[in-house]
Amino acid sequence: MAITGAPASPGTGALAWDFAALTDPGRVRTNNEDTIAFDASLGLVLLADGMGGYNGGEVASGMAIALLQASFGRWLAHAGPMVHARALRRALQAGTDEANSAILEAGVANVQLQGMGTTLVLAAFGPQRAIVGHIGDSRCYRLRNRKLELLTRDHSLLQEQLDAGAITPEQALQSPHRNLVTRALGIERQVNLEMHEHDVQAGDLFLLCSDGLSEMVSDAQLFTLLLQDIGLSEKATLLVATANENGGRDNISVVLARAARSEAPASS
User: Within 10 Å of residue 10's Cβ, how many Cβ atoms?
Assistant: First the structure.
């Protein structure tokens, strides 16, 4: 699906955003435990990759996205796109805390859902900034001026081993611990949403994705695919198709957000 939207009022220096999103079960799994959502009018993007036995992963990711859309989305609609970053961060953490508690309590109440949890990556795109938050190993990249940059750092055992110098990047490619996250929604009573603010420029392209994409498509290949001169919806389809061609071992989800200069209102 693809929708365009302009969350900011046109004006000097303001940017408008176009969005496209796609999720796919991949070639190995029969069910899809990823959940994605975006609200073009608010510039809000949400992506969760669930985990857990039975259908727990689907439940956890679905709850996370639905609750954040309802609570934080409502708050953002009231606060507006120019709200102070500090207030926005507080509201995001509050919405995350609410979702975390609800998922944890649902797991306790239903034995079939015990141990379920979900990663989360989200972004609030405004007229002059983007605030990105994440928990776990779902990622956000930015393509700017033909340079691809990873804006998030995985909360995973593998990343901790890399940071400590215990393994090399080459060894990491074959590690049996690639999917062990150290932070997730619904696992512990408290969870911290890591958040960072980024400036935005016309032409910036942001990619939010589950590890079903990043595990199957190298950063070098992502760079090549994101540079393709095609529409956002076609680009999302190409990313998912490539992940499937490379094995499709997990559910694959992508959300693309592209910044464009907002047209100034006509003078009266």
Answer: 15
d(CA 213, CA 88): 28
% of the chain surpassing 70 pLDDT: 92
Q: CA 177, CA 158: separation in Å to the nearest integer? A: 6
Q: Give the containing element (helix H, strand E) for 38.
A: strand 34-39
Q: Which two tokens stand for residue 108?
A: 């306790």
Whole-prediction pTM: 0.91
| Cα angle: 120, vertex 125, 126; to 5 degrees | 150
267: pLDDT strictly greater than 60: no
Q: Which residues contact 96 (CB under 8 A, 6 or more apart)?
A: 68, 120, 133, 135, 185, 191, 193
pLDDT in tens, 136-171: 999 999 999 999 999 999 998 887 787 788 877 777
Q: What is d(CA 60, CA 47) in angstroms, rounded to the nearest whole number?
A: 12
Rg (CA), the chain: 18
Alpha helices in the chain (DSSP H): 56-79, 85-109, 157-163, 169-172, 211-214, 219-226, 232-245
Residue 87 C-beta-side C-alpha neighbours within 13 Å: 9
CA-to-CA separations, 154 to 9, 20, 225, 259, in angstroms, rounded: 34, 23, 22, 25
For residue 91, the tally of other CB atoms under 10 A from its CB is: 19
Q: Give the number of C-alpha atoms closer than 13 A to the C-alpha of residue 7, restricted to the C-beta side.
A: 32
Note the pLDDT of residue 59.
97
